[in-house]
Specification:
heterodimer; A: alpha/beta; Glutathione S-transferase Yfyf (Class Pi), Chain A, domain 2; 4-stranded parallel β-sheet
């Protein structure tokens, strides 16, 4: 398996551990991953709020780059917001005649042109569908026996442009978690919204949304997610959420490739648990008990 | 506007073609049957001054000012649940993005804690080509209420201590990484 890799802005700073663990886990599974050079921001939720055209040109710039350097490999995307922007742009180009021409008139200033041939795929899709569960289980050196995990996909991972899972009741993480030896705690907030930027702009609303996910994950030992924004909101704001709810909420939040890396026996230098706000120690302690 | 407030339909300005500006839904909004699935599904609806169902009805009727001055759109977190559940197949979530765009373009002054967020993010993205989390948050707090930053001070220090965020000196002069692309986009949109 070969992929071009678009890390996205968060993976260079607040979610660096997501990037390093993703690369290490894919390498352990025998995949070749090449980071796209000179990539720029996908526009987040902001570009399309400023202008319709900017909202498709910024994702298209990266798709054009990937098309230019790649030889048809899929573009691996680990952030659900970037993923949605790339897929939304592809859908818009396919459904609006003349849009691709206009995008390319804009991309001329970057000496790029997009032809609509590359497919952006989410890490969740790639992990669930490009590797067999046997291949994943075969890499496990330290089974996660005794560990109860609450899966959390987030919203844009599975909707609305995501072809690989149910858009409200996703299941693509289940097989992987079981292959690692973990026990899965199913709950009703697996594809709810983490609150995204509302935790900054409207904290009284955003904290409630993140808090509902943390509470639904009880009594799991940890939450596992596949989006840097979700991770940041769920991991960083637990003190504020506890204050708002009037009761203590405390649960470690791991990225899926970190949990896989833990089971694969990968070192702290790529898993980087020390960067988390809520310590991952209880998870490690639970594993050494069993 | 409080949810209980009665709107005097004869006294408010209406633009019957308002839905045409509300892409991508546009006239599809006229398909809305007011079932309320969007309001029932929206995780932010309880905090909105206009629930999504009411907001779409006002949009259908052309009550542009009531819609564009409402807080509702700024509480949308783009979770797309209304989009996938709408039984009439209306792309509601991305039409809310359009409402935000129109409100920003028209310089609507309310909800500055949200509008400043988009402007600060766009400035940083244009300048560096990528997001710089700390500079973006500093610009955001300076543009809103710098004192609210104090509420985040403890979290900020924790994030610095864990190495989750790393401060970089801002580069204020010179050409921004995406200046030319932003300018070209504005030029092309002007031609349309």
């Amino acid at each position: 398996m070969r992929y071009l890799f678009y890390p996205g802005c968060s993976a260079e700073s607040s979610a660096l551990e997501y990037k390093t663990s993703t690369l290490a886990v894919l390498e352990a599974l025998g995949a070749e991953v090449e980071e796209l050079e000179d990539w720029t921001c996908c526009g987040a939720s902001v570009a399309s709020t400023m202008s319709d055209l900017l909202g498709v040109v910024l994702p298209a710039r990266n798709l054009a780059l990937a098309e230019q350097v790649g030889d048809g490999q899929d573009l691996l995307v680990i952030c659900s917001a970037c993923y949605t922007n790339f897929r939304r742009t592809a859908v818009a180009i396919a459904s609006q005649s003349g849009l691709l021409d206009t995008i390319n008139q804009a991309l001329e200033v970057e000496e790029l042109a997009y032809h609509g041939t590359i497919t952006a795929r989410h890490l969740m899709d790639i992990l669930a569908n490009d590797f067999s569960l046997e291949a994943i289980a075969a890499r496990v050196q330290r089974p996660l026996t005794g560990l109860t995990v609450a899966p959390y996909y987030g919203c844009q991972t599975v909707r609305p442009y995501s072809p690989f899972d149910d858009d409200q009741r996703p299941t693509s993480m289940l097989g992987i978690l079981e292959a690692l030896g973990a026990t899965v705690h199913r709950h009703n907030r697996e594809a709810s919204c983490c609150g995204t930027s509302l935790l900054t702009t409207k904290p009284e609303v955003g904290l409630q949304m993140a808090g509902a996910i943390l509470e639904a994950s009880n009594p799991a030992d940890c939450i596992v997610t596949v989006c840097p924004m979700c991770h940041f909101n769920l991991d960083s704001y637990q003190d504020n959420i506890s204050q708002l709810l009037g009761r203590s909420v405390r649960i470690p939040v791991l990225f899926l490739p970190q949990l896989m890396g833990l089971a694969f026996g990968l070192p702290e230098s790529v898993l980087m648990f020390k960067r988390h706000v809520v310590p991952v120690r209880p998870v490690l302690a639970r594993l050494s008990e069993s | 506007m409080a949810t209980s407030e009665v709107i005097n339909l004869t006294a408010v300005k209406r633009d019957p073609d308002f839905v045409d500006r509300l892409t991508p839904a546009g006239r599809l909004l006229n398909r809305c049957i007011q079932c309320g699935t969007c309001s029932a599904s929206c995780p932010s609806a309880p905090a909105m001054d206009l629930t999504p169902r009411k907001m779409w009805r006002l949009a259908q009727l052309g009550f542009q000012d009531q819609v564009l001055h409402s807080k509702a759109m700024w509480l949308c977190s783009l979770c797309y649940i209304c989009h996938v559940r709408c039984p009439r197949g209306i792309p509601l979530t991305e039409t809310i993005v359009k409402l935000k765009q129109l409100a920003l373009q028209e310089g609507i002054g309310e909800w500055r804690e949200s509008t400043a967020f988009y402007r600060a993010f766009a400035d940083v993205m244009r300048r560096y080509g990528r997001t710089r989390e700390i500079e973006f948050m500093v610009r955001y707090f300076l543009a809103t209420n710098p004192l609210t930053a104090l509420g985040y001070a403890k979290l900020g220090l924790t994030l610095l201590a864990r190495g989750k965020v790393h401060p970089e000196l801002p580069r204020l002069g010179g050409e921004g990484r995406l200046d030319r692309l932003f300018e070209r986009v504005a030029e092309l949109e002007g031609q349309q």
